[in-house]
Structure formats: C-alpha cells, structure tokens
Amino acid sequence: MGIDAAATRNRILDAAERLFGERGFAGTSLRAVTTTARVNVASIYYHFESKEGLLRAVARRAMASVSEERHRLLDELCTRGDPGVEELVRAFVVTGADLVRRQGERGEHVARFIGRVLCEPGPEVRRLFAAEVGHVEGRYLDALTKALPGLPAGEVAFRYRTMVGVLALHQMDALADLAPPGHGDDIWAGRGDDTERLIAALTGIFLAPQAPAVPS
Amino acid sequence: MGIDAAATRNRILDAAERLFGERGFAGTSLRAVTTTARVNVASIYYHFESKEGLLRAVARRAMASVSEERHRLLDELCTRGDPGVEELVRAFVVTGADLVRRQGERGEHVARFIGRVLCEPGPEVRRLFAAEVGHVEGRYLDALTKALPGLPAGEVAFRYRTMVGVLALHQMDALADLAPPGHGDDIWAGRGDDTERLIAALTGIFLAPQAPAVPS
DNA sequence: GGTTAAATCAAGCGATCGTTATACTCGGCG
DNA sequence: CGCCGAGTATAACGATCGCTTGATTTAACC
C-alpha cells in the first residue's frame, strides 16, 4: 500500500471519527464522510468493507491512543507500589479527558467519538469497544479491587462501569446543557477544566460504603 | 377529537417511545413506527407535525410521569424537615429506575427512551428535555445544595448533572456489557436490582470532598 | 514499452428515507 | 337528505441511503 493510499485511508478515518462523534453512527451518511474527506465513496468500500467496517476501524484507532497511554500510566503507577483509589481514578480520567490537551483538536474528536460509541444503540459496537480496551480496563479493575479490600469484586466492577460511563458522558458534552439555568451554573459558566471535578466525584463513587444487600 | 382518534395518537406515541428508546431517533424510521402502531404514515403528520414533533410529544409524555412522581416524593420528603443527601438521591433514583416496577413493560420503554434522549446527538432534544423537567430538577438541585452547605452551588450542580447522566446510562442498559469478563461480573451476572448500588454510588459522588481549584 | 496490481473515479443500482397531495370514510348538524 | 370537518388510507414525490460496477489512473517490475 503506497503512502498516498495510507493518506486516503487516514483522511477517511479522520472524517468518520469526527462525524460519527458529532452526529452519531446512524446519523452520519457515507456521503457526508466522503465529502469532508474529499474522497470517492468507493474508497470506503475498498479500504474498509462496509459502513460498519469503517466504524470498527475508527473505534480501533481511537481507542488505541488512549489505551496505550493508560497502560503506560498504570505501569508507572505500579512501580511506586500499590496505587490508591484516587491515583487510579486520576490516571483513568486524565487519559480520557486530557486528550484535547495532548492531541489538540483531534483529541476532541477522539474523545467525543468514544463517548458517543458507548451510548449508541446496538450492543455490538459497545461489545467491540469492550473487547478492544478489555486488556487495559481489566488491569485498572484489578488494581481498583486491590485498592478497595472492603468492597466485593462485583461491587467494584459495577462502580467501575459507572465511572467509564460518566467519563464518556463528559467527553461528549452530553451533560453540558442539562441542569436548569439559575442554579449555580452561571458561576462556572466559563468552565475552565472539569477534570479535577470529575476526579473528585468519581473517587467519591468508589469510596462510598457498600449498599445493603437487597433480596432479589 | 374522538376517542378513537386519541387511541390512534396513543398507539403512535407508544410505538415511537419504544422504538426511539431501542434504536435511537435517527435509527428509527417513521415506517417502523407506523408498522408497529398499525397506523398509516399520514396519521403521524396529522397528529404531530413531523418526525421531530413526534419526538417532542413522546419526550413530553415520557417525562410527565416521572416528573409528577418526583414532585410528589420531594414534597413528602420536605414535610419531614430538610431531607439529607441520601434521601434526595434515593428519591431521584427510585423515581427513574423503578419505572419498570411501577408501570410494567411500559415503564421499561419510558426509562430506556429517557436515557437515550440524553445521549442523542443534537443538543436541541436535550435542551427540550431540560426545559421539560427543569422545574422538578431545580427543586432537587436546591434541596441538594441546602443539604451540602460545604459545597459551592456550582459544584453541586456539576455533580447533579453527573447523577442525571449516570441514571440515564443505567436506564438504557448502556453499561451492561462494558467491563471485560472474568472480573467479578459473573458474581452478579444474574443481576437482581441495581437500585441500591446506584443510590450508594451516587450518594458517594455528592459526599466527596471538593476538588482543589485549578487555574484556568 | 508492456504487464500487472493497487488505488481511485464517475455513474448508477434498488431500497428506503421524510414528507406531501389527494381521495375516502363517517358521525354530527342544518 | 346534503353538507362538512375530523380522521384515516392510498400513492407517490424527490432526495438520499448503503452499496456495486466497470472504467481509469498510478506506480512498480520485467
């Protein structure tokens, strides 16, 4: 594959990443992708097999960057002994939320895309997503379980999932225009960086006492 | 409007509510709605003006039921003095998550639809949503702010938004197949009721210490 | 230069999309 | 009875959808 072919492939991936993130999978036509990528429709079917194949490729590439960073950060954390809950949450959140700072505009697209994928209908994409990042996430889950000896593994897993979801929602700005105005929003309207807020809130999730068992 | 006309309208609303919740707005065609509702395509444009008008109507009806319940529960809570954080979170979560128990299968559709709306692209729907439930949510926000005197209003608002998002994600089962297998999932695979887990985790969000200020 | 395979293109396939114009049915009112 | 408006059904509009085909370009190799 020539260098120009790879360039075409990447232009398609870039366009799809942005548009899927902005309008969702079902809401994005292949024509829209080819237009913004300045590419012919057939190239999509040549490089990827179908629209879903394109989605898979985009998801793989998008997750790769944050997966690497998460592995690296966790390695670094573990060399200094068993990491605490807040350290783990911070590492996880920062690798997701700071994509913008680390990768510029592209990072924003990646973040939005990843967030969107988790909310899209059809569990197939979510499962692909889970499989793609399973290795990293498994490590974080294990570390969190070890850092929370008082909590059963199932409970930690539940809260871990919740953390992933919250991060996704914030990455796609789904919560931006949610609360009614005039209730303290104006205070932080010029929102600087929510990362620290997120870390604090998410750490609170893990530190909460265990829920009483409920008979099913 | 005759009684049969109202029946048609409701059949359309029911079908749209379910399908929008399952496949999303962009992923649901009007034909699919008319087929499951056993109605002609034109009736949609007669009763509602367009596809988006249908969405608005569905959103209004879906939110009405939980809004009422939330108002009622908060009233009841306030007559017994200022409610605590966990009480407030519980009231909010239960009214959302227990729709199934209170309304049967219909409740499941409502819950899924509401969850989906918050994750759909296009902020218009989210804003409509926020406007629709703004009154109730404002009350909860106020009560939470009063129950958390140590936290600035903006911080409470941020965490409140997070809570709404988490509840939505759980209502649409978006977090079900997320974590990799073999990490404590099997323990609670036969998931009974997550409501108590949710309440515990979400209460933890509000009880977390304030994040340190970060210079923007 | 001729051959071959990778890569891109224009054009169009059938299907389905949201939407609309039009005709029909039917109960209430004069 | 005739009329009318609310409500439903038929049929189709143009646009766009995901996807395919067949020709054309490009570059590497003998």
Automatic annotation (TrEMBL), chains A, B:
Q: What is this protein called?
A: HTH tetR-type domain-containing protein
Keywords, A to Z, come to: DNA-binding
Q: Which organism is it from?
A: Actinomadura vinacea
Residue ranges annotated for the HTH tetR-type domain, each copy included: 6-66
Q: Which residues bind DNA?
A: 29-48
